[in-house]
Structure formats: C-alpha cells, structure tokens
Amino acid sequence: MIALDVQNVSVAYGGGRLALRQATLQVGGGSVCGLVGMNGSGKSTLFKTVMGFLPPLRGSVQVFEQPVIRAQKAGLIAYVPQSEDVDWNFPVSVREVVMMGRQGQMGWLRRPGAADHQLVEESLERVGMSAFAGRQIGELSGGQRKRAFLARALAQEGRLLLLDEPFGGVDVGTSEAIIALMGELRREGRSMLVSTHDLGTLETFCDEVALIADRTVLLYGPTDEVLTAEHLAHTFGGRSPLHAPSTAKLEARP
Ligand SMILES: Nc1ncnc2c1ncn2[C@@H]1O[C@H](COP(=O)(O)OP(=O)(O)OP(=O)(O)O)[C@@H](O)[C@H]1O
C-alpha cells in the first residue's frame, strides 16, 4: 500500500506566488523516504500540505488512500516540525507537549486516561527524555527539543511520520539515536518522510529519496537510483527538472 500519494500538487501562501509547483511524490508503506533540496525549495511547504495546513490549489494528496483531512482526523499523520516553526517560549512542559500527541485520539473535551498517560511516559522513555519531562520546552538544548517532539509523534501513534529536518542543530550522538529510532519505527511498519540537508547519512536510513528543487519534486524512487552525483548536481545547481518522476517510480509494496 502507498503511504503517501502526492499528485501534481500546487500550493501558494495567501494567494501569492506558487510555493509548490505540480509536485508529485509517493512514499511506499513501511518505507523511509528522504526529502532533499536546497533552502527554499519547498520541503516545509510540502509537509504543511500533507498535514492539511495548506490546501492545494491543484492536485491531490492522499494518505493511506484517504484524503488528508480524513487521515488527519484518524490520527494517521504525525508531524515533527522544524525547530524554527515552534514557539519555544510557550509555557508548556515536555510532558504536556507529548500529551498533545494524544489529543486527536482523546477529542478536545476528554481528559487523558491511564492508557494515554502510560503511552506518554513510554514515548518519553523511548527518546531518552524521561528525566526532562517536567521542564519547560524553552529550557531544552537543540537535541532535547527534537527528542521532545519525536516523543509527541510517538505518542500520537501515527502511521505516517513527517520529520522536518530532524538532524538540524543536533550532535552526532543525537543524530545516531534518531536514526536508530527511525529504524525501530520502520520495523514496526510505520512510514516516514524525512527532510534533511545531511546527504552523508541518507543512504544509511532511507529506502527512497525524493529530490526537490525550485518548488517542485524533480525525482523520487529507490535511494540507489535517485542518489547519484548527477541527480544531486541538478538538485543543488538549481537547473531544470531531469525527467518526469515516473522514471524511478516507486513500486508499491505490500
Ligand atoms: N509563510 C510563507 N509565506 C509566503 N511564502 C512562503 C512562506 N513560507 C515559505 N514560502 C516560500 O515558499 C517557497 C518554499 O519554501 P519552504 O519553506 O517550503 O522551503 P524549504 O525547502 O523548507 O526551505 P528550508 O530548507 O530553508 O527550510 C519559498 O520560495 C519560500 O520563500
């Protein structure tokens, strides 16, 4: 089954110029897909579109064969935002952030039950943040902040995880811990779309890679087919698209 199916999606912020132009991308069920491109190429916009924050002007987005809004309501999509997109002064503790991951499942009026509390503690434990659970989120290091939001995504139990630059501003140890966690999640059958500038580690954790430049997806498919010097030169040289995404089109996995 295809976890994420983005077809010819165009998006603009506030009716301005297009921030995504006819982007097409698929992520296979149970796969980890790296999303690679320069600053301003459209990675965060793609995440926001898949989250349903930005409605496409054209094209369609489906998550596990459901429209985004329905997939969102069903709690299928978990999002780990870029650190820049979080208000770190917000007066909330790490534990409270992680509990926010349960909100969709609880509904707005229900209070968390024992199972919710247990899942929050397990998620904190899994990312090594139990000792920091009571801390205000602004009082964390860069790596701890990433871990806190990863724990929120775990608590949510989403089947598709969107990780926007999980390695930004973290040390080698934290990067390795995040990669190990992604491996565990993949073995659990979760699918991931992971934006990163860290080209060196892509091959270690990605089944698939999507290259994005000038606000559209140039190419996506199996890591070894996509991640060539020539393709990367096109992506980072800002030149025109190589060829249609279908050349390295993903085979659907069971
Ligand atoms: N809130 C916004 N309002 C208007 N335009 C925006 C907004 N956010 C991003 N854009 C524009 O949309 C395009 C894609 O930006 P986006 O933030 O998706 O890139 P990115 O690949 O995530 O970049 P980075 O690697 O720097 O995070 C850019 O041209 C950018 O200037």
From TrEMBL:
Belongs to the ABC transporter superfamily. InterPro entries: AAA+_ATPase (IPR003593), ABC_transporter-like_ATP-bd (IPR003439), ABC_transporter-like_CS (IPR017871), Metal_Ion_Import_ABC (IPR050153), P-loop_NTPase (IPR027417). Gene3D superfamilies: P-loop containing nucleotide triphosphate hydrolases. The keyword Transport applies. Residues 4-239 form the ABC transporter domain. Keywords: ATP-binding, Nucleotide-binding, Transport. One of its GO terms (molecular function) is ATP hydrolysis activity. Transmembrane segments: none annotated. This is ABC-type Mn2+/Zn2+ transport system ATPase subunit.
